[in-house]
Amino acid sequence: MGELLQIAAVLALAVAFGILAALLRQPLIGIFVLTGIVVGPSGLRIISSHSQFELLGSIGISLLLFIGGLKLDIRLLRRVGRGLVWAGAAQVVGTALLALPLVAPFAGGQPMVFALLALALTFSSTVVGLKVLADRNELDSLPGVLAMGILLIQDFAVVLILIWLDVLTMPTGHARPLPPWLGVPAGAGLLAALFGIGTLYLPPFLRRFARTPEFLTLFAITWATLLAALCETLGLSKELGAFVAGLTFAASPFKDTISSRLAPLRDFLILFFFLDVGARVEFGLLGGQLVAVGLYLGFTLLVKPAIIFGILARLGYSARTSLMSTLPLLPMSEFSFLLAANAMRAGILQPTDAGALTLAGLASFFVSPFVLNRAEEIYRFCRPWLERGEKGRKDRESTLATHTAAPTPPEIIVIGLGEYGIRLCEFLLRRGKNVLGVDFNPDVLAAATARGIPVHYGDAEDDGLYKHLPLEKARWVVVAFRSWPLAQTVLGLLGACDWHGRVALRADNDEVARLLEEAGAHVVLRPYSDAAELAADSITESSDIVFHLGRWPMAFREVRLPSHASTVGQSLAALQLRSTTGASVLAVSRAGRTTLDPPGDFILYPNDRLLLMGAPHALDAAEEALTNPAPSSVESEFQFDVAEIRLPANSPVVHQTLDRSRIRQTYGVTVAAVLREGRWTISPGGSFSLLPNDYVLVVGPADKVEAFRMLHTRTTQPVR
């Protein structure tokens, strides 16, 4: 079979397995390795020569390391603190030391084999970990930041280990520039120097030529190739040069452009690396290594996560945060395959050792998705045991998360402080409402606090959060994030708290809105739909009627009335805008309709757009008068309430019709519905008679509803 036909057949199988992986929600790395096994000597024997796959795979792994260095944000370490840096280093060293007794029976007494097998079991997959966090929308959450911090430290450790491996396995005939014991510090120093030069001198150069994206991509590839060639000349691996080349671009504003352009090429070429790894596995030689495969897999899925969990718990993070940070780190690292491949080429590892490691890594890729999809179930099952260790230990999360208690019990609790949630809180605060914002991202909480929003740290999926939230006086809980499954979880957890308030959920499309309404949402918020309607109003505004006045000293301006403006609800005549400011109202746009020359009794509403005419200074004064916010007390003068009340036998309104009892005129409330013997009467007419033990749903001003409720000695809890 020709080489091109081999590649075509292998790619066809990879696509077929990829479709299966998408259906089973499996990571593609494992599928690529499995494809390699199928087409290798243990399967269909399609691959007769590894040279072309090894070459393409080498380029792919170099691109992987280049983009990996490109995306490594060292500033991330500042967010998690120096403690996690040392803890990450301790995890690498501690896990490797604990792995030594495990790999001892399979190392044949060779120290290098000991060390490499133990180190390969230490690291976690950066590609899978980041994808899991991105799919779960948790990259910016505290567990996501901790997991990425650990992955960052592991990646740096891998770089140092690759340098060490390159120095020790340098060919005998190769001129050593330095003795082996100086190889690692010298290599690290060289890479640090290259990184410094790149970060100092590359940005000004790139800013000059970055206007052409094609040139930017070409320069990035050229720079990576130059550093890779330099490292290979010095006896280091070319992959290390590519990694450092990526690091030099990490602080550049153009890194996202470079990454997005190179990512498809990386994804294609990295396929050949994992195909080559799988194709080198020969089951015929692994008969005595099946025990090793099982032990390696058990260590990867049980011991390594336990070490990471223990370190995070020791640092003071809660049991849930520690567990949710640990689970994305289950799969074995793709760099473990790289270590094994390089060591096998250098003659340190035998094919059987590398094959056992590959099979264990492959199994970890397939097992991990099932564990991650049941993360909440695992936490709830293990919670009693996990939380025993929290007693008497300092809670680090309370110091990481900016927490400002609300001055009074909140009326409205907003869960999810993204841009939409924060804006919602700000508008509610302007209206004089007591608000509390909830989020799990410490940086978001700090930003919300800086904008004057009372906040509470917590994860919406954690049932423990709702035990600590001040729900007693809360009339509303607003879920401002866009995740439909998570919104369902919040509804269930609020129901378990026996809370009787109202819930508003966010939907970004009609299908989700329908599902949320069916799930029990009292109000469905549609930010995109609302914003689109306002945008339509903006581009069909009343200022379209204005023509150019040439040399006349007149100006026009359109002013939108915010909902908190003091002028909302007033008539134009009451404002006396022309006599006080000198500006005239030519037209008012509302919901896409324009009223020209509105009369004096025209009432203004929120989001009205007023077209003003006058001198520039008059327009400034008119805009200030129109948009001036109302005092918070203005809006809070009227509070609407709803209550369910049981009528006792001695109630003054029983045995009377609604007309005769004159409930609305006497008590200031309206009977909206009556429940009698399990049957509802909605909007009862004036001839409807009230009887003892009827449940009436009354609506009206809060003080009137409360007075009517207090009139009756036997009442039920108000429905809010």
Give your account of this protein's structure.
By secondary structure, this protein is of the alpha/beta class. A 6-stranded parallel β-sheet has the order 3-2-1-4-5-6, sandwiched between helices.
Write the layout of secondary structure elements.
Blueprint: H1 3-24, H2 28-39, H3 51-71, H4 76-80, H5 82-103, H6 111-120, H7 126-135, H8 142-168, H9 183-209, H10 213-233, H11 238-249, H12 255-279, H13 290-314, H14 319-326, H15 334-345, H16 351-372, H17 375-386, H18 397-400, E1 412-415, H19 419-430, E2 435-439, H20 442-450, E3 455-457, H21 465-468, E4 476-479, H22 484-496, E5 502-506, H23 510-519, E6 523-525, H24 527-539, E7 555-560, H25 572-575, H26 577-581, E8 584-590, E9 593-596, E10 609-614, H27 616-627, H28 632-636, E11 640-646, E12 656-657, H29 658-661, H30 663-667, E13 670-676, E14 679-682, E15 689-690, E16 695-701, H31 702-711
Parallel strand pairs: 1-2, 1-4, 2-3, 4-5, 5-6
Antiparallel strand pairs: 7-10, 8-9, 8-10, 11-16, 12-15, 13-14, 13-16
Total helical segments: 31
Proportion of β residues?
Answer: 5-15%
Question: How many angstroms does the end-to-end distance come to?
Answer: 75 Å
Q: What is the gyration radius calculated from CA atoms?
A: 34 Å
Helix content: 55-70%
Strand order of the largest sheet: 3-2-1-4-5-6
Uncertain stretches of 5 or more adjacent residues: 172-176, 633-637, 714-720
Mean pLDDT, to the nearest integer, reads 79
Shape: elongated
Structural category is: alpha/beta
What's the multimeric state? single chain
Major beta-sheet overview: 6 strands, parallel
Number of strands: 16
